[in-house]
Amino acid sequence: MRVLLVGATGMLGTEIKRILEPSHEVITASRKGSEVSVDLSDKASIVAMYGTVGKVGAVVCVGGAAKFAPLDSLGDDDYAFSLANKLMGQVNLVRCAIGHVDEGGSITLTSGTLAHQPMVGSAAVSIVNAGVEGFVRAAALELQAKMRVNVVSPGWVAETLASMGKDASEGIPAADVAKVYKRAVEETMTGQTLLAAKS
Ligand SMILES: NC(=O)c1ccc[n+]([C@@H]2O[C@H](COP(=O)([O-])OP(=O)(O)OC[C@H]3O[C@@H](n4cnc5c(N)ncnc54)[C@H](OP(=O)(O)O)[C@@H]3O)[C@@H](O)[C@H]2O)c1
């Protein structure tokens, strides 16, 4: 299957590429350093990406950003950035996919644990992650005849915790998270928020 992987150069994208490549043709996308250039915060860029890539069997998105900062320092620009980037970027990835994803194909988006387990500084990120999950539940109802749509909530990734100087054993290895994305591509679920677990 042809799989378009957005955010392919990142921590999770690298592992997802590694796990999909033996059985699928992976087309990589991100703002820089991938086969296809895309900026999720720019809808025209998403349209152009689909035009360049042609038809695919699946789209996986592990790209996009949201602002992590204390509530009293989050400004209008921070909320606007977060909503336009990781939230509307992924929403537009689905909206613009019609006609570019094979019938019965799939789109898999990414949320995060802060949707349901917030922490100090996560207000904007929590909105975005919860919004992606709500969108997927609703959109799947209307897209059933066309494509499946799911979201993976990765939890804290072990390698990310390590890079932050925190206890990596509290997190889930990126390779285990990547297996959840592979399931979303290859199995038949739709409208689901899939959680990663240590194997
Ligand atoms: N790592 C964790 O512990 C963890 C936990 C929960 C949720 N998540 C979520 O999982 C996703 C991936 O995390 P990660 O740790 O793999 O992130 P990462 O290492 O920072 O990688 C992000 C990837 O997305 C691309 N990207 C960023 N902004 C983009 C944009 N506007 N348009 C297109 N591509 C863009 C980056 O490449 P360019 O910069 O070249 O565009 C890169 O390929 C994120 O949504 C993150 O919030 C991660």
UniProtKB/TrEMBL annotation:
<dbReference type="GO" id="GO:0016491">
    <property type="term" value="F:oxidoreductase activity"/>
</dbReference>
<dbReference type="InterPro" id="IPR002347">
    <property type="entry name" value="SDR_fam"/>
</dbReference>
<dbReference type="InterPro" id="IPR036291">
    <property type="entry name" value="NAD(P)-bd_dom_sf"/>
</dbReference>
<comment type="similarity">
    <text>Belongs to the short-chain dehydrogenases/reductases (SDR) family.</text>
</comment>
<protein>
    <submittedName>
        <fullName>Short chain dehydrogenase</fullName>
    </submittedName>
</protein>
<keyword id="KW-0560">Oxidoreductase</keyword>
<dbReference type="InterPro" id="IPR051122">
    <property type="entry name" value="SDR_DHRS6-like"/>
</dbReference>
<dbReference type="Pfam" id="PF13561">
    <property type="entry name" value="adh_short_C2"/>
</dbReference>
